Recover the amino acids of this structure.
């Protein structure tokens, strides 16, 4: 029933697509004033539990020889302030595109000698939320030139390509129908600046890639692997669209 | 870390003043009933009670059923009577309990 | 635009008809002296849920306010505040406040126990509301009486449900 409602609602909206590109606005702009207030209030926003857990993990010494994150990144409030605004970014040594989750896993495996946490594990979500929270309020500023350019182009192509049984591109809704209602939701620009975010739908904090998997399911398209190349490239493109928007992690979303 | 709590009380209060206490709790509040993949169902596991004790007696009790959200918030009021700890105790299905305290300074 | 979400609005329309029908039934019971004033505009099943909590006593529709959004963004977490007009003294205070959602799988949602030391009868929490329905707040007073109020809430579905 929910699925049929979604398709009908979407079909009606698509008929009025205008395709005008406006200034990109944060996902928070599309929340109710009540939920926005709750997001800003540390006594109300459950996402701060994940931030707190991440802060704790950051200082905890792992088993074996490795040292805690804080052993290298002393005074993270200063040393890692604004770090999240530059992700995803190219890892110079490997020539790979890494998002914040990927960078944390890389540190954990290569420098701490620990097994990777795995995408969407509470530990990785917490550390990501903590590091992103150190950039709260600072503007996104990812690089899309040089070695990042092919990834940016791939992400842009993903955004613009029609996909799935509904034969829809991201762009058709998230540029063309922004501000319109899709069932209980208001269509946003698809800025990922609040993730990892506490989503009411999940009753939990989740990653941007988990959210993207829900988008793919929504248009009956292939759901790609969280942390895989498709969503990484898309994340870079979304981040570049959101240039100048403040990091809001841990945001609250419907 | 399936349980955690964020308790907010005023930094200080005058004797007799009515203060608001806000409690945000990290807990999945699992309603149960889902398949456990082995032919059975997952049992309910929620926090079913929160008790707050201050200056020698319980001042508030919150009985929770499945109609209370995951990661629940609750707020209530109490009259500041003396400097001391407000002790919060949660009871979870299955019998586990969790305790936290918050200091209220009364001037 | 409203036609874009017609499957849902159609359901709501039926819901309203059903509710007015039930209200009519309740009114009929009043006429025959079977229902009591506070229940007159409450569907019978909800009245039964209330009566079970009050052990048959009839709550007065006064002194209690239920602040809950008319339209919930997501039923998983609905901000709710209840305020009872009470001096909160030894002689006259609220003993508890009980919340009922008639169409939840378990209609009894929560109960707040208060006492004179609360100073004010004012509590808030986040509720799970399974679907569009009527929510009741019911308070037990120290003199043995009950007060109640209710509010209609529309629960919308998030567009992108991923089952997570």
């Amino acid at each position: 029933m929910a699925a049929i409602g979604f398709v009908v609602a979407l079909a009606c909206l698509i008929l009025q697509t205008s395709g005008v590109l406006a200034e990109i606005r944060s996902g928070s702009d599309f929340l109710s004033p009540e939920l926005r207030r709750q997001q800003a209030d540390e006594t109300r926003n459950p996402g701060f539990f994940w931030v707190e857990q991440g802060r704790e993990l950051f200082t905890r010494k792992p088993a074996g020889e490795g040292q805690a994150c804080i052993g290298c990144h002393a005074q993270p409030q200063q040393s890692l302030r604004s770090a999240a605004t530059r992700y995803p970014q190219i890892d110079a040594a490997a020539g790979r595109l890494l998002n914040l989750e990927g960078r944390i896993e890389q540190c954990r495996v290569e420098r701490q000698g620990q097994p990777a946490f795995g995408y969407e594990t509470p530990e990785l979500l917490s550390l990501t939320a903590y590091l992103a929270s150190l950039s709260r309020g600072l503007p996104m500023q990812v690089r899309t030139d040089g070695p990042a350019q092919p990834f940016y182009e791939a992400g842009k192509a993903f955004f613009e390509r029609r996909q799935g049984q509904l034969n829809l591109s991201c762009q058709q809704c998230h540029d063309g129908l922004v501000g319109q209602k899709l069932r209980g939701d208001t269509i946003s620009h698809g800025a990922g600046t609040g993730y990892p975010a506490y989503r009411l739908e999940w009753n939990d904090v989740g990653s941007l890639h988990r959210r993207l998997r829900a988008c793919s399911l929504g248009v009956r398209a292939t759901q790609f692997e969280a942390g895989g190349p498709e969503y990484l490239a898309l994340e870079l493109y979304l981040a570049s669209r959101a240039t100048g928007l403040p990091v809001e992690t841990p945001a609250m979303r419907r | 870390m399936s349980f955690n709590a964020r308790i907010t009380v005023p930094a200080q209060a005058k004797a007799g003043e009515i203060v608001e206490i806000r409690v945000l709790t990290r807990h999945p509040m699992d309603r149960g009933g889902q398949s456990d993949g082995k032919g059975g169902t997952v049992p309910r596991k929620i926090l079913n009670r929160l008790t707050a004790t201050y200056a020698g007696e319980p001042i508030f009790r919150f009985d929770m059923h499945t109609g209370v959200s995951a990661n629940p918030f609750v707020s209530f009021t109490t009259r500041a009577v003396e400097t001391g700890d407000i002790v919060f105790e949660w009871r979870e299905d299955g019998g586990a309990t969790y305790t936290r305290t918050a200091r209220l300074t009364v001037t | 635009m409203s036609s874009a979400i017609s499957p849902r609005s159609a359901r709501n329309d039926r819901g309203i008809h059903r509710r007015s029908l039930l209200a009519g039934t309740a009114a009929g019971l009043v006429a025959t002296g079977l229902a009591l004033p506070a229940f007159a505009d409450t569907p019978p099943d909800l009245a039964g849920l209330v009566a079970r909590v009050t052990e048959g006593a009839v709550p007065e529709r006064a002194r209690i306010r239920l602040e809950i959004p008319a339209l919930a963004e997501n039923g998983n977490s609905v901000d709710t505040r209840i305020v009872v007009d009470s001096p909160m003294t030894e002689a006259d205070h609220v003993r508890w406040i009980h919340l009922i959602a008639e169409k939840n799988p378990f209609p009894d949602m929560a109960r707040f126990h208060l006492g004179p030391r609360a100073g004010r009868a004012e509590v808030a929490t986040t509720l799970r509301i399974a679907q569009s329905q009527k929510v009741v707040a019911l308070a037990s007073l120290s003199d043995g009486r009950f007060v109640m109020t209710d509010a209609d809430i529309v629960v919308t579905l998030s567009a992108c449900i991923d089952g997570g």
